[in-house]
Amino acid sequence: MHRQRVSGPDVEPVSVEELQKQLRLPPRESEVAELEQQIATAREDCEEYTWRQFLPATWQLELSGFPLCGYVRLPRPPFLSLTSVRYRDADGNEQELDAALYELAHVAGNMAVCLLSGKSWPTTSCSRKAVIVTWVAGWPEPAALPKRYKQAVLLLASDYYRNREARALAAAGDAPMLPPAVRSLLGDRATDW
Fold first, then answer.
1. Strands (E), the chain
2. Cβ–Cβ under 8 Å, residues 95 and 160
């Protein structure tokens, strides 16, 4: 099983102007690219911590076959839409899964592609990417993102800007330890699997 973000988000939850105001920085064109990078990195780290997708992004989940349990959980809530469920049949040809075989339902806090009662998954080829599920996750726009998540991104981006040297050293190692105020705003980690 392998999952990856394939595109998005196209916007950030915090603007450069909001970060400059938080940092009490005068507007300087020379720092815009660096501030944008701090915001994007902060959002990604907050998403990783919560196992949620803050703004719309397309994700793919690759499986070696359909699961015996009868459903495929889609990580990174909140779920927005299902793009496709594709599989390689026994002959290795790519097929789109018939929508009459499944429904979307919540399973343990995540949206899932659930096999309907009395139906069975099609036979797949024996490969690492026998099944590929593509979906869009995230709050639909920055204004819909819970305020505590937006504030967490703003605080973390501020911290990354103020401590650029420490952040550069941490980038070479493990994932950064989030400051207590940011962890408090983000709350408990979501259950991903």
1. 2-7, 57-63, 71-74, 79-88, 94-96, 102-107, 110-115, 131-137
2. no
The predicted structure's pLDDT at residue 193: 42
Q: Which of 18, 26, 36 is nearest to 147 (CA)?
A: 18
Specify whether the CB–CB gap between 95 and 89 falls below 8 A. yes
Enumerate residues 6+ apart whose C-beta is below 8 A from 125: 88, 89, 90, 91, 92
Q: What is the pLDDT of residues 144-192, one digit of tens each?
A: 999 999 999 999 999 999 988 766 555 555 556 899 999 999 997 654 4
Are 66 and 121 in contact, with CB atoms under 8 Å apart? yes
**What are the structural domain ranges in the chain?**
8-54+142-186, 57-137
Distance of alpha carbon 154 from alpha carbon 149, whole angstroms: 9
Which amino acid appears at position 77 of this protein?
A: P
Query: Looking at domain 8-54+142-186, which CATH architecture does it have?
Result: Orthogonal Bundle (1.10)
111, 104 in Cβ contact below 8 A?
A: yes
Tokens at 12, concatenated: 């950030």
- pLDDT number for residue 28: 86
